[in-house]
Amino acid sequence: MIFVGAAGSDVLGTDSAAKNHPNVQLLLSPQTDFDQRLVLRRDGHIYQPWVASITFREDWPWFFDATLDNADDFPGTFDSRMDFFGVALHEIGHALGIGGNPAMGALLQTLGNGEDRYQGFMGQEASCINGGQNGYTPVKMSGGVHTAQEVRSNGNPPVMGLVVEAPRRQITDLDLAMLRDIGYKTTSP
Questions:
Q1: pTM
Q2: How far apart are CA 117 and CA 138, in angstroms?
Q3: Burial class (CB in 10 A: 0-12, 13-18, 19+), 10
Q4: How far is Cα 20 from Cα 90, in angstroms, rounded to an integer?
Q5: Per-residue pLDDT tens over the stretch 65-99
Q6: CA separation, residue 124 to residues 24, 185, 187 (Å)
Q7: 181 neighbors 123 (Cβ within 8 angstroms)
Q8: Distance CA 166, CA 79 (A)
Q9: I need a labelling partner for 117 at 20 to 30 A (CA). Which of 11, 107, 166, 187 fits?
Q10: In whole angstroms, what is the distance from residue 40 CA to residue 27 CA?
């Protein structure tokens, strides 16, 4: 279950269009079997959160689109308007566990040397998709929670990238593979 709301920059800050809160805490320490199962779903090796919330900036210049399969009618640039649908998909990805939970953290590894060091997502399915014909290639991450700006899936930036460089991002095979690697079952879009 994902709760969705809106708030101003006084709550979310001025640098963010939206934030998610996947790790809703139990109010009491887990004392019953049910409580313990809820904690395991949030903190276990397979991430299956029982509840999350997403808050969108109410004072952000959002673009709401009636044609979600393309961005042909997008009226501005990234600097002036932001695609609500693309941001919502991105935040749902976080709420489902891409970034910031034990299942994801277990699959991150520091790779490279010196200035070329980066965090790589080592999930088997995502690494195979990322490697393409070259085989197994860890997915380069930014801060462990977003795919790096240069990462592509079939030529398109994943919805879980940090910078929205195009008006509309769709869920890619790489996004779905990352979800499978942390315990979800998915179907192709």
A1: 0.82
A2: 13
A3: exposed
A4: 10
A5: 777 777 677 766 655 677 888 889 998 998 888 88
A6: 28, 14, 17
A7: yes
A8: 11
A9: 166
A10: 15
